[in-house]
Specification:
This protein is mostly helical. It is built from nine helices and three strands. The protein folds into two domains: 75 residues, no CATH class; 107 residues, AhpD-like, CATH 1.20.1290.10.
Length: 194
């Protein structure tokens, strides 16, 4: 039995959907094809299986997601993870924040940055480049977005080029969408102790 996960963490969490996931054994050909495009080093997640109820949407989502988060160009991956960590924290998505926190910490070997963000919020002390990225991610996450031309200028002053700025916007925007799906279709959980 699992228990709801509360509080932001670097721990590995699970996610339980409130809608029944597609059973892969009885999935349609279209559902299986859409799921085949979903990258995972851990198998098919309950989230992907739940999204497979609409295989066409999943088939369209997967390459867009992969192109934004995993493309080997533009904004470095660690900075995408930092931006989406901030976005996920501000949206209250404990599950996504835990994933981005771990990836950022793994890529940078700086888990202390994550701990400071969790303890002090987005205003924590950061170098100028990270400060500009975190500030922009926070403003873009606001509803309605509060980011403006002065924020783009701050990113440029911190050394980001146009492609990196666009990558930052794409990463924050796609995870705002993912957060809303995860927050309304299920909840983060911790596996109950053995």
């Amino acid at each position: 039995m699992s228990v709801p996960a509360t509080g932001f963490t670097l721990d590995v969490l699970e996610w339980e959907p409130w809608l029944a996931p597609v059973d892969y054994a009885t999935a349609t050909e279209a559902q299986r094809a859409a799921l085949a495009e979903t990258p995972s080093n851990t198998g098919l997640s309950p989230y992907s299986l739940m999204l497979a109820h609409d295989p066409e949407a999943l088939r369209q989502r997967t390459p867009l997601f992969n192109g934004i988060m995993y493309a080997p160009r533009g904004l470095p991956r660690a900075e995408r993870e930092l931006a989406t960590l901030v976005e996920s924290v501000l949206n209250g998505c404990v599950y996504c924040a835990s994933v981005h926190a771990r990836r950022f910490a793994e890529l940078t070997k700086e888990p202390e940055v994550v701990h400071r963000l969790y303890a002090e919020g987005a205003g924590t002390d950061l170098d100028p480049r990270r400060r500009a990225i975190v500030d922009f991610a926070a403003k873009l996450t606001a509803t309605p977005p509060a980011a403006g031309p002065e924020d783009v200028a701050a990113l440029r002053a911190a050394g980001l080029d146009d492609l990196q700025i666009l990558d930052l916007i794409h990463a924050v925007a796609i995870f705002a969408w993912a957060n809303r799906l995860m927050l309304t279709l299920g909840e983060p959980v911790r596996a109950a102790p053995g």
